[in-house]
Write a structure and sequence with these properties.
Layout lengths: L8 H32 L6 H22 L6 H8 L6 H14 L3 H4 L1
Helix pairs in contact: 1-2, 1-3, 1-4, 2-4
Amino acid sequence: MPRSDFATSAEYHADAERRAYDLLNGQIARIDAALDFLKLNRSKMLPSIYAGLHTQLVGLRNRAENFIVMPDCGGTTALGIMGANGCDPKITALIASVDFHANRPASIAA
């Protein structure tokens, strides 16, 4: 919402806090689902690929959790990182990579 739509600065920041909290929780849920999927398909990928994907996912999850514990849930900073559609491009790309490696045919994975 444009700033002119808010009666006070407090309303503007409260809205940013609510949106950031909701979006961060959504991102954490996406990362948790990707981690579960990664663990289920661990046997289909090389150990180094699994370790790299797992480390990156856990790192992004921790980053999102760090924003949640901030006084305003990261507010506009968290919203800016997540982009216009509310999805962090890094998380989206990493989840696509998890899907790619978990669903590769066995002849390519070995």
